[in-house]
Amino acid sequence: MANLVYKRVSTDQQSTARQNLVLHEAGIEDPVVFEEDPGTSSRLHPLQRPKFRELLNYARPGDTVHISEMFRLVRGTGHILDVLDVLHRDEVALRIHDGAFSAMDLTARHPRTGELLSTVKFMVQTLAAAGELQRDLQRELTYDGLRAAEAKGNKGGRRPAVAVDKADTVRAAYLEDRSIAALARDHGVSRGAIRTAVADLLPDHTATAEVVPPPELPVTLDMPGKVAHFLRTAELDPVERAALDQGVTVRRGQGYTLRVTAAPSVHRQFLTRCQPLDGGHGPPAIPAQRKARREYENRVSTLTPGP
């Protein structure tokens, strides 16, 4: 079983030094390295990149693909499942050693359905993991920009803030109708730095703070068996399908309920998808199914309304 290492950088001004460090610390034995040419577009689908395709052709069942960070392979969560499907088809494992998804088991399958358990973890960890992936991407893009600026002789990063011993002078000049642009030129700082120094003097100054809504946390609800049976035959997205497949069956006399853990928004999507059970358009509603849907609707209605 071989250890296959995949490396990629965005431009020829970058190096693989960080990737080498992360992979070295992982202690990978006898690595077989596949490194993309720097000119390979990072927007190209990973399954179309030359060296990754070469890696897939080289791989054999039981091999493991090692990557320092997920963004070295994908540019968004939309392509992750595409890659996982191919790797699982070829019985090849994937190990991410740092950043987004590094703590997730991307190789496990459900013992009954055979579907990827990683899709379940997307349901619970999508916001956190996708946010971390975007932060990783932003760090790389920022680094690219700084290196490109250095190549042109420009110094990257923010311009300095107003020095503490100059703040009173700046504020006094502003009160004497000196413009923000002129003060920025005089003191060699950005206009934003001047605005920060005189923030409480600006005519539109307010003390309000930005409110960031918290991410949704998964909630467990009992879904009537008739609703679960209907949804299993419906067209669902991967997160919904994973939540349904991972539900725990609880027997209730001749029937059952499915204990489903999902974000409130997913429960609301389920409720919308099983609307046909309530009648209206299409075939007449079956009373038992209508009752089951309304029971589930009552449970979903107790959840905190979404944004």
TrEMBL record:
Residues 2-153 form the Resolvase/invertase-type recombinase catalytic domain. InterPro entries: Resolv_N, Resolvase-like_N_sf, SSR_resolvase. It comes from the Bacteria. CDD domains: SR_ResInv. Residues 276-307 are annotated as: Disordered. Belongs to the site-specific recombinase resolvase family. PANTHER family: DNA-INVERTASE FROM LAMBDOID PROPHAGE, RESOLVASE HOMOLOG YNEB. This is Resolvase/invertase-type recombinase catalytic domain-containing protein. The lineage of its organism: Bacteria, Bacillati, Actinomycetota, Actinomycetes, Kitasatosporales.
